[in-house]
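Aim 2, interim progress. The first record below pairs a target sequence with its C-alpha coordinates.
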Amino acid sequence: MMPIHTILHPTDFSDRSEFAFRMACSLARDYHARLVVLHVWSRPMLLYGEVEPVVDSEEYRIEAQRQLDNFESSDSGIRMERKLVEGDAVPGILHEAEEQGADLIVMGMHGRTGLNRLLMGSTAEHVVRRASCPVLTVKTPVPAAECIEARVEEQRAVPGEPSLAMVG
Protein backbone atom coordinates (compact mmCIF):
# COMPACT_ATOMS: atom_id res chain seq x y z
CA MET A 1 0.00 0.00 0.00
CA MET A 2 1.30 3.42 -0.99
CA PRO A 3 1.92 5.67 2.03
CA ILE A 4 -0.21 8.79 1.76
CA HIS A 5 0.35 11.46 4.40
CA THR A 6 -0.72 14.60 2.51
CA ILE A 7 -3.41 14.95 -0.15
CA LEU A 8 -3.72 18.11 -2.24
CA HIS A 9 -7.14 18.92 -3.65
CA PRO A 10 -7.14 21.84 -6.12
CA THR A 11 -10.62 23.29 -6.57
CA ASP A 12 -12.25 25.77 -8.92
CA PHE A 13 -15.48 25.60 -6.86
CA SER A 14 -17.33 23.77 -9.66
CA ASP A 15 -19.60 20.75 -9.25
CA ARG A 16 -16.85 18.59 -10.73
CA SER A 17 -14.44 19.82 -8.09
CA GLU A 18 -17.04 19.10 -5.41
CA PHE A 19 -17.20 15.46 -6.47
CA ALA A 20 -13.38 15.22 -6.40
CA PHE A 21 -13.40 16.89 -2.96
CA ARG A 22 -15.61 14.10 -1.62
CA MET A 23 -13.17 11.54 -3.03
CA ALA A 24 -10.22 13.41 -1.47
CA CYS A 25 -12.02 13.43 1.90
CA SER A 26 -12.65 9.69 1.71
CA LEU A 27 -8.99 9.03 0.94
CA ALA A 28 -7.83 11.40 3.70
CA ARG A 29 -10.08 9.58 6.16
CA ASP A 30 -8.96 6.10 5.05
CA TYR A 31 -5.24 6.98 5.08
CA HIS A 32 -5.40 9.32 8.11
CA ALA A 33 -3.84 11.92 5.82
CA ARG A 34 -3.77 15.68 5.97
CA LEU A 35 -5.99 17.26 3.28
CA VAL A 36 -4.96 20.58 1.75
CA VAL A 37 -7.74 22.26 -0.25
CA LEU A 38 -6.24 24.72 -2.71
CA HIS A 39 -7.72 27.42 -4.91
CA VAL A 40 -5.40 29.17 -7.34
CA TRP A 41 -6.81 32.44 -8.58
CA SER A 42 -5.61 34.91 -11.15
CA ARG A 43 -6.58 38.52 -11.48
CA PRO A 44 -9.66 38.53 -13.71
CA MET A 45 -9.48 40.80 -16.73
CA LEU A 46 -12.26 42.03 -18.95
CA LEU A 47 -11.39 42.98 -22.49
CA TYR A 48 -13.40 45.76 -24.05
CA GLY A 49 -12.10 47.16 -27.29
CA GLU A 50 -8.56 48.34 -26.78
CA VAL A 51 -9.05 49.09 -23.09
CA GLU A 52 -8.52 46.38 -20.47
CA PRO A 53 -10.46 47.36 -17.36
CA VAL A 54 -9.49 45.28 -14.35
CA VAL A 55 -12.23 43.69 -12.30
CA ASP A 56 -11.83 44.46 -8.59
CA SER A 57 -9.31 41.76 -7.73
CA GLU A 58 -9.59 42.34 -3.99
CA GLU A 59 -13.32 41.67 -4.15
CA TYR A 60 -12.67 38.51 -6.19
CA ARG A 61 -10.02 37.33 -3.69
CA ILE A 62 -12.36 37.93 -0.75
CA GLU A 63 -15.14 35.93 -2.45
CA ALA A 64 -12.72 33.09 -3.29
CA GLN A 65 -11.52 33.01 0.33
CA ARG A 66 -15.15 32.92 1.53
CA GLN A 67 -15.90 29.95 -0.73
CA LEU A 68 -12.72 28.20 0.39
CA ASP A 69 -13.57 28.78 4.06
CA ASN A 70 -16.93 27.08 3.47
CA PHE A 71 -15.27 23.80 2.50
CA GLU A 72 -16.15 21.32 5.21
CA SER A 73 -15.77 17.59 5.35
CA SER A 74 -18.62 15.47 6.65
CA ASP A 75 -15.98 13.64 8.73
CA SER A 76 -14.72 15.83 11.56
CA GLY A 77 -11.67 13.58 12.00
CA ILE A 78 -10.05 14.80 8.78
CA ARG A 79 -7.19 17.26 9.24
CA MET A 80 -8.04 19.85 6.61
CA GLU A 81 -6.22 23.02 5.65
CA ARG A 82 -7.35 25.62 3.13
CA LYS A 83 -4.98 27.60 0.96
CA LEU A 84 -5.62 30.46 -1.47
CA VAL A 85 -2.80 31.49 -3.79
CA GLU A 86 -2.59 33.89 -6.69
CA GLY A 87 -1.17 32.78 -10.03
CA ASP A 88 -1.80 30.53 -12.98
CA ALA A 89 -3.57 27.27 -12.16
CA VAL A 90 -1.07 24.65 -13.35
CA PRO A 91 2.14 26.22 -11.99
CA GLY A 92 0.31 27.13 -8.78
CA ILE A 93 -0.94 23.58 -8.24
CA LEU A 94 2.46 22.07 -9.00
CA HIS A 95 4.24 24.53 -6.70
CA GLU A 96 1.85 23.85 -3.82
CA ALA A 97 2.14 20.08 -4.33
CA GLU A 98 5.91 20.42 -3.83
CA GLU A 99 5.57 22.99 -1.03
CA GLN A 100 3.06 20.88 0.91
CA GLY A 101 4.91 17.60 0.29
CA ALA A 102 1.82 16.11 -1.34
CA ASP A 103 1.82 12.36 -1.78
CA LEU A 104 -1.29 12.54 -3.96
CA ILE A 105 -3.22 15.18 -5.89
CA VAL A 106 -6.97 14.57 -6.25
CA MET A 107 -8.68 16.83 -8.75
CA GLY A 108 -11.80 16.98 -10.86
CA MET A 109 -11.74 17.10 -14.60
CA HIS A 110 -14.15 18.80 -16.95
CA GLY A 111 -14.18 16.03 -19.52
CA ARG A 112 -13.72 18.31 -22.52
CA THR A 113 -13.00 16.51 -25.74
CA GLY A 114 -12.11 17.27 -29.32
CA LEU A 115 -11.58 20.84 -30.48
CA ASN A 116 -12.73 22.33 -27.16
CA ARG A 117 -9.97 20.44 -25.31
CA LEU A 118 -7.39 21.28 -27.97
CA LEU A 119 -8.18 25.00 -27.83
CA MET A 120 -8.67 25.36 -24.08
CA GLY A 121 -6.25 22.72 -22.83
CA SER A 122 -6.83 20.74 -19.70
CA THR A 123 -5.53 21.82 -16.32
CA ALA A 124 -5.84 18.25 -15.06
CA GLU A 125 -3.92 16.89 -18.04
CA HIS A 126 -1.08 19.38 -17.56
CA VAL A 127 -0.89 18.56 -13.86
CA VAL A 128 -0.87 14.81 -14.56
CA ARG A 129 1.99 15.21 -17.03
CA ARG A 130 4.14 17.45 -14.82
CA ALA A 131 3.42 16.51 -11.19
CA SER A 132 6.12 14.71 -9.22
CA CYS A 133 3.51 12.72 -7.27
CA PRO A 134 0.56 10.59 -8.42
CA VAL A 135 -2.55 12.44 -9.58
CA LEU A 136 -6.04 11.02 -9.29
CA THR A 137 -8.44 12.70 -11.71
CA VAL A 138 -12.09 12.30 -10.87
CA LYS A 139 -14.74 12.60 -13.54
CA THR A 140 -18.17 13.50 -12.22
CA PRO A 141 -20.84 10.95 -13.03
CA VAL A 142 -23.24 12.17 -15.66
CA PRO A 143 -26.67 12.90 -14.13
CA ALA A 144 -29.39 10.45 -15.17
CA ALA A 145 -31.31 13.15 -17.06
CA GLU A 146 -28.29 13.80 -19.28
CA CYS A 147 -27.91 10.06 -19.95
CA ILE A 148 -31.54 9.84 -21.06
CA GLU A 149 -31.14 12.87 -23.35
CA ALA A 150 -27.99 11.38 -24.86
CA ARG A 151 -29.75 8.08 -25.55
CA VAL A 152 -32.66 9.88 -27.20
CA GLU A 153 -30.24 11.85 -29.38
CA GLU A 154 -28.38 8.64 -30.31
CA GLN A 155 -31.66 7.04 -31.36
CA ARG A 156 -32.56 10.04 -33.52
CA ALA A 157 -29.16 9.90 -35.18
CA VAL A 158 -29.52 6.29 -36.37
CA PRO A 159 -31.20 6.24 -39.79
CA GLY A 160 -33.94 3.66 -40.20
CA GLU A 161 -34.25 3.10 -36.46
CA PRO A 162 -37.43 4.14 -34.68
CA SER A 163 -36.99 7.07 -32.33
CA LEU A 164 -37.90 6.89 -28.67
CA ALA A 165 -41.21 8.61 -28.19
CA MET A 166 -41.14 8.28 -24.45
CA VAL A 167 -38.34 7.34 -22.07
CA GLY A 168 -39.44 6.27 -18.61
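The second target in this work package is listed in the same format:
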Amino acid sequence: MGRNDQLTPFFRSAGQGRILGAILLGRPEERLTVSEIARRAHVPSSTAQREVDRLEQYGLVTSQRFAQSRVVRPNERSPYIDDLRSLVLKAYGPTFVLGEALAAVAGIHAAYIFGSWAARLRGEPGPPPEDVDVLIVGEPDSAAVDATMQEAEATLGREVQATVVSPAEWRAAKSPLLRTIMRRPLVPIVPVGNG
Protein backbone atom coordinates (compact mmCIF):
# COMPACT_ATOMS: atom_id res chain seq x y z
CA MET A 1 0.00 0.00 0.00
CA GLY A 2 1.40 3.42 -0.99
CA ARG A 3 1.57 6.44 1.29
CA ASN A 4 -1.55 8.04 -0.19
CA ASP A 5 -3.69 4.91 -0.61
CA GLN A 6 -5.40 5.78 2.67
CA LEU A 7 -6.82 8.87 0.92
CA THR A 8 -8.60 6.90 -1.81
CA PRO A 9 -12.02 7.59 -0.26
CA PHE A 10 -11.39 11.33 -0.67
CA PHE A 11 -9.55 11.46 -4.00
CA ARG A 12 -10.26 9.30 -7.04
CA SER A 13 -6.62 9.26 -8.06
CA ALA A 14 -3.20 10.72 -7.35
CA GLY A 15 -3.72 12.90 -10.45
CA GLN A 16 -6.83 14.43 -8.92
CA GLY A 17 -4.91 15.10 -5.71
CA ARG A 18 -2.07 16.77 -7.63
CA ILE A 19 -4.58 18.91 -9.56
CA LEU A 20 -6.14 20.03 -6.28
CA GLY A 21 -2.65 20.70 -4.94
CA ALA A 22 -1.79 22.90 -7.91
CA ILE A 23 -4.99 24.92 -7.45
CA LEU A 24 -5.27 25.10 -3.66
CA LEU A 25 -1.63 25.40 -2.61
CA GLY A 26 -0.54 28.16 -4.96
CA ARG A 27 0.10 31.74 -3.95
CA PRO A 28 -3.11 33.56 -2.95
CA GLU A 29 -2.87 36.09 -5.80
CA GLU A 30 -1.99 33.45 -8.39
CA ARG A 31 -4.42 32.64 -11.17
CA LEU A 32 -3.56 29.45 -13.01
CA THR A 33 -4.55 28.42 -16.50
CA VAL A 34 -5.76 24.89 -17.03
CA SER A 35 -2.56 24.22 -19.00
CA GLU A 36 -0.41 25.34 -16.05
CA ILE A 37 -2.47 23.19 -13.67
CA ALA A 38 -1.94 20.19 -15.96
CA ARG A 39 1.81 20.88 -16.15
CA ARG A 40 2.21 21.18 -12.37
CA ALA A 41 0.04 18.12 -11.73
CA HIS A 42 1.81 16.04 -14.43
CA VAL A 43 -1.48 15.13 -16.10
CA PRO A 44 -2.84 15.67 -19.64
CA SER A 45 -4.64 18.97 -20.23
CA SER A 46 -7.85 17.09 -20.96
CA THR A 47 -7.71 15.48 -17.50
CA ALA A 48 -7.12 18.85 -15.83
CA GLN A 49 -9.98 20.36 -17.88
CA ARG A 50 -12.45 17.65 -16.75
CA GLU A 51 -11.37 17.99 -13.12
CA VAL A 52 -11.67 21.79 -13.17
CA ASP A 53 -15.16 21.43 -14.68
CA ARG A 54 -16.13 19.08 -11.85
CA LEU A 55 -14.61 21.30 -9.14
CA GLU A 56 -16.41 24.34 -10.53
CA GLN A 57 -19.70 22.44 -10.73
CA TYR A 58 -19.43 21.76 -6.99
CA GLY A 59 -18.41 25.32 -6.13
CA LEU A 60 -14.82 24.60 -5.08
CA VAL A 61 -13.19 26.73 -7.79
CA THR A 62 -14.14 29.63 -10.00
CA SER A 63 -12.88 30.28 -13.50
CA GLN A 64 -12.86 33.05 -16.07
CA ARG A 65 -11.96 33.09 -19.72
CA PHE A 66 -9.28 35.47 -20.95
CA ALA A 67 -8.67 35.23 -24.68
CA GLN A 68 -7.89 31.56 -25.34
CA SER A 69 -7.14 30.67 -21.70
CA ARG A 70 -9.33 29.60 -18.82
CA VAL A 71 -8.02 30.99 -15.53
CA VAL A 72 -8.85 29.09 -12.32
CA ARG A 73 -8.84 30.11 -8.66
CA PRO A 74 -10.04 28.45 -5.45
CA ASN A 75 -13.51 29.60 -4.40
CA GLU A 76 -12.63 31.09 -1.02
CA ARG A 77 -16.36 31.42 -0.23
CA SER A 78 -16.87 27.65 -0.22
CA PRO A 79 -17.42 26.35 3.32
CA TYR A 80 -15.23 23.35 2.46
CA ILE A 81 -12.18 25.12 1.04
CA ASP A 82 -10.12 25.48 4.24
CA ASP A 83 -10.62 21.85 5.25
CA LEU A 84 -9.94 20.62 1.72
CA ARG A 85 -6.81 22.78 1.50
CA SER A 86 -5.57 21.31 4.80
CA LEU A 87 -6.11 17.76 3.57
CA VAL A 88 -4.50 18.45 0.20
CA LEU A 89 -1.55 20.18 1.90
CA LYS A 90 -0.85 17.08 3.99
CA ALA A 91 -1.40 14.62 1.17
CA TYR A 92 -0.08 16.38 -1.96
CA GLY A 93 1.85 19.41 -0.75
CA PRO A 94 5.60 19.95 -0.56
CA THR A 95 6.23 16.84 1.54
CA PHE A 96 4.68 14.57 -1.10
CA VAL A 97 6.24 16.39 -4.08
CA LEU A 98 9.70 16.36 -2.51
CA GLY A 99 9.29 12.73 -1.45
CA GLU A 100 8.62 11.79 -5.08
CA ALA A 101 11.53 13.88 -6.34
CA LEU A 102 14.14 12.79 -3.76
CA ALA A 103 13.39 9.07 -4.10
CA ALA A 104 15.77 8.82 -7.06
CA VAL A 105 18.68 10.72 -5.46
CA ALA A 106 21.38 8.48 -3.98
CA GLY A 107 23.35 9.42 -0.88
CA ILE A 108 20.53 10.96 1.16
CA HIS A 109 20.31 9.73 4.77
CA ALA A 110 17.41 12.01 5.77
CA ALA A 111 15.53 15.02 4.43
CA TYR A 112 13.29 17.56 6.13
CA ILE A 113 11.19 20.59 5.35
CA PHE A 114 12.00 23.42 7.74
CA GLY A 115 11.07 27.09 8.04
CA SER A 116 7.64 28.52 7.31
CA TRP A 117 6.29 25.50 5.43
CA ALA A 118 7.21 23.20 8.31
CA ALA A 119 5.52 25.59 10.73
CA ARG A 120 2.30 25.57 8.63
CA LEU A 121 2.39 21.78 8.29
CA ARG A 122 2.72 21.56 12.09
CA GLY A 123 -0.32 23.79 12.54
CA GLU A 124 1.27 27.17 13.26
CA PRO A 125 -0.87 29.99 11.81
CA GLY A 126 0.55 32.44 9.36
CA PRO A 127 0.52 33.54 5.74
CA PRO A 128 1.24 31.05 2.97
CA PRO A 129 5.02 30.72 2.65
CA GLU A 130 6.72 31.99 -0.47
CA ASP A 131 9.42 29.33 -0.74
CA VAL A 132 10.14 25.85 0.59
CA ASP A 133 13.25 25.26 2.69
CA VAL A 134 14.68 21.74 2.56
CA LEU A 135 17.43 20.24 4.69
CA ILE A 136 19.19 17.22 3.18
CA VAL A 137 21.41 15.13 5.44
CA GLY A 138 23.87 12.98 3.51
CA GLU A 139 26.36 13.22 0.71
CA PRO A 140 24.29 13.29 -2.48
CA ASP A 141 25.54 14.47 -5.85
CA SER A 142 25.01 18.24 -5.92
CA ALA A 143 23.92 18.23 -9.58
CA ALA A 144 21.26 15.61 -8.78
CA VAL A 145 20.01 17.70 -5.86
CA ASP A 146 19.87 20.85 -8.02
CA ALA A 147 17.94 19.04 -10.76
CA THR A 148 15.55 17.60 -8.19
CA MET A 149 14.90 21.00 -6.62
CA GLN A 150 14.19 22.49 -10.06
CA GLU A 151 11.71 19.68 -10.74
CA ALA A 152 10.00 20.31 -7.39
CA GLU A 153 9.88 24.07 -8.09
CA ALA A 154 8.09 23.45 -11.38
CA THR A 155 5.49 21.27 -9.67
CA LEU A 156 4.98 23.46 -6.59
CA GLY A 157 5.11 26.78 -8.43
CA ARG A 158 7.48 28.29 -5.86
CA GLU A 159 11.19 28.35 -5.14
CA VAL A 160 12.69 25.35 -3.31
CA GLN A 161 15.94 25.98 -1.48
CA ALA A 162 18.03 23.03 -0.36
CA THR A 163 20.68 23.03 2.34
CA VAL A 164 22.88 19.92 2.26
CA VAL A 165 24.89 18.85 5.33
CA SER A 166 26.86 15.73 6.11
CA PRO A 167 25.56 13.35 8.79
CA ALA A 168 28.47 14.42 11.05
CA GLU A 169 27.58 18.12 10.64
CA TRP A 170 23.93 17.37 11.44
CA ARG A 171 24.82 15.40 14.58
CA ALA A 172 27.24 18.08 15.82
CA ALA A 173 24.93 21.00 14.93
CA LYS A 174 27.69 23.55 15.52
CA SER A 175 26.52 26.17 13.03
CA PRO A 176 23.93 28.76 14.09
CA LEU A 177 21.78 27.75 11.11
CA LEU A 178 21.63 24.09 12.13
CA ARG A 179 20.93 24.99 15.77
CA THR A 180 18.06 27.22 14.63
CA ILE A 181 16.70 24.52 12.31
CA MET A 182 16.75 21.98 15.15
CA ARG A 183 14.79 24.30 17.49
CA ARG A 184 12.00 24.99 14.98
CA PRO A 185 9.46 22.61 13.42
CA LEU A 186 10.93 19.95 11.13
CA VAL A 187 8.80 17.79 8.85
CA PRO A 188 10.44 14.58 7.62
CA ILE A 189 10.35 13.92 3.89
CA VAL A 190 9.85 10.23 3.19
CA PRO A 191 10.94 9.30 -0.32
CA VAL A 192 7.95 7.84 -2.17
CA GLY A 193 8.56 4.15 -2.65
CA ASN A 194 10.68 3.95 0.49
CA GLY A 195 8.08 4.93 3.12
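The longest helix spans residues 142-156. This observation will shape the mutagenesis plan for the next reporting period.
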